[in-house]
Specification:
It holds the Pfam family HTH_3. GO terms for molecular function: DNA binding. The chain starts with a helix and ends with a helix. The longest helix has 27 residues. It has six helices and no strands. The protein is an all-alpha fold and 93 residues long.
Length: 93
């Protein structure tokens, strides 16, 4: 049971970091939430992007990867950064 709770905490933390990452990438690319939503396949509205960025709803993995590409970032690097942000300090080295 403890492992399951720990895994849920890791999962929730990961999505929280993904939310911050989406906002950061979008702003770095100079896009509004609406503009980013229109570039996704399938397109999504501004409210959906807002919900992803605030962590209200988790971003689908495929959409996260598309956002990385659209904003000019490597999905592999961004995913690695997200995973590393969830590691305890003493395990990162």
């Amino acid at each position: 049971m403890k492992l399951r709770i720990r895994q849920l905490g890791l999962f929730n933390g990961l999505w929280g970091e993904a939310a911050k990452s989406i906002r950061s990438m979008r702003k770095d690319a100079g896009l509004t939430q609406s503009q980013l939503g229109q570039k996704l396949i399938p397109t999504v509205d501004q409210a959906t992007i807002s919900n992803w960025e605030t962590g209200k709803t988790p971003v689908p993995l495929t959409s996260y990867f598309l956002i990385c590409f659209i904003c000019g970032f490597s999905p592999e690097e961004k995913t690695k950064q997200l995973l590393e942000s969830q590691q305890p300090e003493n395990k990162r080295n």
